[in-house]
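User: I'm curious whether this sequence folds into something compact or stays loose and floppy. Could you predict its structure so I can see for myself?
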Amino acid sequence: MAETLECDDPKLRFQAAQEVLNRSLGKAHATIDVKATVDSGQAHLQALISQTALAASLKTVEALTIDATPALSAPFAIESDG
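Assistant: Here's the prediction. I'll summarize afterward.
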């Protein structure tokens, strides 16, 4: 590679220098230009619908019934010796 950097052909010298830089610094990252159109009103509406559905599913709970009937169905009496 050192010999190529010193050769007479400018194209080869450029390619060799570029290869040295790529190996030492890494290749340059590509730049991409992206354009997107977003309907923020529609996106907001969809988010509200999703949140409302989630909230409704969390509020739906089965009622829990607790049986509070006493275990003894007859009146309870305490006997005393006196």
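Summary: The helical segments are 2-5, 10-25, 40-59. The two ends are 118 Å apart (CA to CA).
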